[in-house]
Structure formats: C-alpha cells, structure tokens
Amino acid sequence: MSEIALEQVSVRVPTHDGDLLVLHETSLRLTERRVALVGPNGSGKSTIARLLNGLVAPSTGRVVVDGLDVSRSGREVRRRVGFVFTDPAAQLVMPTAREDVALSLRRTVPDKQERLAAADAVLADFGLEGFGDRSVHGLSGGERQLLALAGVLATGPSVLVADEPTTLLDLGNSRRIGDLLLSLPQQVVLVTHDLELASRCDRALLVRDGRVEQDGAADDVISRYRATA
Prior knowledge:
The protein is an alpha/beta fold. The chain is built from 8 helices and 10 strands. The relative contact order is 0.18.
C-alpha cells in the first residue's frame, strides 16, 4: 500500500469577508487499503480528498504521497493518485467512450491505433465492451461513472481518490460502482454519504466543521456519526 501523510495541514480559502478556514490543522497517515471519509455536507471531506493529488493546495503544512511532496512534485503525484469526481461530466471530455479512454492512454501508448485498441480492452474490463463508438452523452449515469473510472484507472495509479462517486446514481448503479471500487487492487480513499459502503472500508474518518472528529475502525466511526448526526 501507498503511504499518504498530511503533516500539520490547514486550508484557508478567500472570501469577500477575508479568508475562511475550511480545514483546521490536521495530521494523518493513511496506509490502509480502504479509507472512508464521512460527515455532513461542507464539513471538509472533499477538501481533504482534493489535497491528496494537488487539486487543493495546503495553506500550511504539507501533503506527502510515498515520500513525494504534492506541492513540489505534483505531476509525479498525479500519476500515482487518480481522482474520480461526483459528476462524471467533469471528466468525460471526448465525444465517444473509446476516445475518452484513449486520451488517458496517450502518454503510455504512443501509437494511435494501438491506443484505440487498448482503450477497447479497458472498456471491456469495466463491462463496457462494444461501447467504443457510443457518445458519452448517450450513456446512462452508471455507464458514465464506469467510463470515468475506466479512464482514470487506465493510467495505472496506485491510489484512487473517489469524491462521492455514487451520489448521483440510483440504488442499483450505486451498488455496482461501490462493489467495483472496493474490489480494486489500488488503495482507495472514498468520500461518501453511503454509510453502508463506508462500513465496508478498513478505516473511516468522521469530518465535521473542518476537523477530523473521529478516526478509527469504520463501524465505530459510523456508529458515532449516526449517534451525533
């Protein structure tokens, strides 16, 4: 497993009334295979998640992934840490499913025809065989999220950060995506409101008001969250 560390990290964002502290000083080491971040909306969960591959920069302290400082070695860290957004529309930028996955492979597979063939193989691995020519706009919500995951994982990251990847999905697709995430060989950091899914992780963090309020075994943390929500 990778080792992810937040060392005395805080995050402030500018507002009309001055800086707003969205994450109080936090130190963490994440080495478990499955880590869930739970808590109310606006608590700071997504801020922690986005720190892990440089989508958010720390105001103080530093974030380190396998010994690499995210602020100083951002490109190398982003090769190791893939990120999946809540809404796959934020990631699907090419007209067809094949082209979208192929875009992720452009660095590792230089030849265009080989890249397109490799993209079809990736689609098949994610249950999207035969979807290569389908418009990304014509896919269902679950299919779009599968495609977004396929594109991110095609680059071979060692860590996957997923920010509420099932929030926009119906029950069946939520289960499908959740099962897929938990079956991956990569280390997964999962921001979620799905407490059943979170309970299947090895460790959970309860984040509230910009602080990690509790950190421990998933069942214990979720019980605390249910009791204090």
